[in-house]
Amino acid sequence: MLESKNNEEPIEIDAKLLSEEVLVEILENFILREGTDYGLFEVAADKKLEQIRKQINRGVVKIIFDQSTETVSLLAER
Question: Which of 59, 68, 71, 69 minimizes the C-alpha distance to 26?
């Protein structure tokens, strides 16, 4: 497990505070990093973007900024 250099906790970012351009960029980056679908049907990138956006709006997926690595991740609620 990586330890934070400055012991700062990750921050949850409210998607409503982000511009549309930044939000789309975060989602597209996540989709590209996610890789290939392994389900029965391939899902188009624009459809994935729509699905993730809906999950964020419902609070199922959170946008997290890690201060120590200065990276953004999407995390699913458990």
Answer: 71
Task: Give the predicted TM-score (pTM) of the model.
Answer: 0.78
Q: Could you tell me the two tokens for 50?
A: 């729509």
Bridging pattern class, strands 11-13 and 61-66: antiparallel
Are the C-beta atoms of 63 and 74 separated by less than 8 Å?
yes
Of 44, 8, 49, 2, the closest CA to residue 25 belongs to 49
Give the pLDDT mean for 9-32.
Answer: 95
pLDDT tens for residues 38-52? 567 778 888 999 999
DSSP state of 68: T
